[in-house]
Write a structure and sequence with these properties.
mainly alpha; 9 helices; about 0% strand
Length: about 240
């Protein structure tokens, strides 16, 4: 038995598989922490007077509101440009701050929708995300081409969402949400496969490996949150 173990350890495929599992375990751990942090922040602001800190007395966005709305985008650009130069602790701190801001930005859902429909949407999102993550991890099909198409679709979604901010079209909003569900369902599988490949060549316990795990968690976290928001358009109840 020991000889078999030693032989497996010398096998490159065995080593890559072990590295991928460790790396992906770290990725999903960071992602889970971020979701919990966002959930707490969203609930704290959405079910208390704290939410009024995001708006002025006239109903317009307060300074904090603008920070909450634009801050996450700035943090994504910051991590994308400087993550390799930052320490692991700094990258982790920025990631947690990002999760807090996203949670604060989601706080309004507790005013717009019933608690039961929010929970239902979260469960459906978690189930869909889980199935697609397993598919992306286990499939032997190369999803690279699908990923390129899905990324182009994201750009189209952003353009359509910006346009609908001025048009205020209900049917277009539902169409955007429907396409968004399909796009981020597919991206979950694609990103999982891509991260599995990264994990096979990265030491998950090294400084760079830990930072790569956080960046991977950020990708999957965004897939989950955006999938949740688009599904909420269909499953959220205002009664």
């Amino acid at each position: 038995m020991r000889n078999e173990i030693y032989e497996n350890q010398d096998n490159p495929q065995f080593t890559q598989a072990t590295m991928s599992k460790t790396f992906m375990s770290n990725v999903f751990s960071y992602m889970t922490v971020a979701l919990v942090v966002s959930g707490i922040a969203a609930y704290m602001f959405g079910t208390s007077d704290l939410i009024f800190m995001l708006y002025t007395e006239t109903g317009s966005m307060s300074i904090l509101g603008w920070v909450v709305m634009l801050g996450p985008l700035g943090l994504i650009f910051l991590l994308g440009a400087k993550a390799q130069k930052f320490s692991y602790t700094t990258v982790l701190g920025i990631f947690i701050l990002f999760a807090v801001l996203i949670g604060m930005s989601l706080s309004s859902i507790f005013i717009m929708y019933t608690d039961s429909s929010i929970v239902l949407t979260f469960v459906v999102t978690a189930g869909t995300f889980g199935v697609m993550a397993v598919l992306g991890y286990t499939t032997s099909t190369d999803l690279t081409q699908f990923g390129s198409i899905l990324k182009m679709a994201v750009i189209g979604l952003i353009i359509a969402m910006v346009a609908n901010m001025f048009m205020h079209s209900g049917p277009l909003d539902y169409l955007i949400s429907g396409i968004g569900v399909l796009v981020f369902t597919g991206l979950t599988a694609y990103d999982t496969q891509k991260l599995k490949q990264i994990g096979s060549v990265v030491d998950a316990n090294s400084e760079e490996g830990k930072k790569a795990s956080i960046m991977g968690a950020l990708s999957l976290y965004l897939d989950f949150i955006l999938l949740f928001q688009f599904l909420l358009s269909f499953l959220g109840s205002r009664d």
